């Protein structure tokens, strides 16, 4: 594993970005397949094959392109581009703050895509997506702040090479980050803006009026985003690459189990619980670190 890490570190920035661009959707699609398979087994069903998400996306790209208006797909393309840009920055070893802000901008374009059509279901989903962003963004910023306090750098390359275990210094920040990951991964009880089941009150929420290639692009973008988020989990355990990989996959498994055991919260509870957990776990951890230094 150390030799692999050394090889990756020897790559140029362009090579790392290209590796993320090519490999992240494969890893994200496999994770989505494992998610669907495991979720089905937990519900007593056999479930689809792990490769099913790839089949679904390919089928979407083969469908007819239907637009409600000319502006509809433009924000989705920007959502995709800025998400990929965020991940490329992160895995190239650039500033984690820049990656976080770029990812927030990508989420903003996704919301604009929901508001660009006249469907009430899409507008409701976009409004809830905005509330979700307000819920999780403070905690994501605290992750970067906490890592800076420990390592003295916002650069991902410096954070990865830090010898001490970040999880020992940032247990509260990590707990808060895992809490908001349920929102970012769009799992219950925080799947407010985009329902996976058409018979629920959202119908399809923010993606109601998207179909064909646009919907396929949204799905691929979520794969890129999930890989980026698991990369941030990796940083907490980066002192031991094997442990970091296990912790990242374990976190994703934990989110699947949470998804299977909770019904959807109302937006008020989602917002206040996220901010309360951020304050109690994240902010208190940051304050303790300030006093220790």
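-> sequence recovered:
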């Amino acid at each position: 594993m150390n030799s692999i890490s050394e090889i990756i570190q020897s790559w140029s920035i362009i090579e790392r970005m290209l590796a993320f661009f090519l490999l992240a959707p494969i890893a994200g699609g496999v994770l989505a397949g494992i998610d669907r398979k495991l979720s089905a087994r937990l519900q007593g069903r056999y479930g689809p094959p792990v490769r099913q998400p790839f089949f679904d996306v390919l089928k979407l790209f083969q469908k007819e392109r239907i637009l409600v208006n000319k502006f509809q797909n433009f924000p989705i393309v920007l959502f995709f581009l800025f998400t990929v840009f965020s991940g490329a920055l992160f895995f190239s070893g650039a500033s984690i703050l820049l990656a976080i802000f770029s990812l927030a901008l990508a989420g903003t374009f996704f919301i604009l895509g929901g508001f660009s059509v006249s469907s009430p279901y899409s507008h409701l989903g976009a409004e809830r997506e905005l509330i979700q962003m307000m819920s999780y963004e403070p905690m994501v910023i605290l992750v970067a702040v906490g890592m800076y306090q420990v390592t003295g750098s916002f650069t991902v390359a410096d954070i990865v090479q830090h010898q001490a275990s970040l999880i020992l210094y940032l247990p509260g920040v990590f707990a808060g980050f895992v809490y908001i990951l349920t929102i970012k991964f769009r799992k219950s009880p925080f799947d407010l803006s985009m329902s996976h089941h058409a018979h629920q009150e959202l119908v399809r929420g923010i993606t109601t009026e998207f179909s064909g290639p646009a919907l396929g692009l949204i799905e691929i973008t979520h794969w890129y985003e999930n890989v980026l988020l698991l990369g941030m989990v990796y940083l907490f355990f980066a002192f031991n690459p094997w442990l970091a990989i296990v912790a990242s996959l374990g976190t994703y498994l934990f989110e699947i189990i949470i998804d299977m055991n909770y019904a959807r919260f109302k937006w008020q509870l989602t917002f206040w619980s996220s901010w309360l957990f951020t304050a109690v776990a994240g902010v208190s951890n940051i304050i303790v670190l300030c006093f220790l230094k």
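The radius of gyration is 19 Å.
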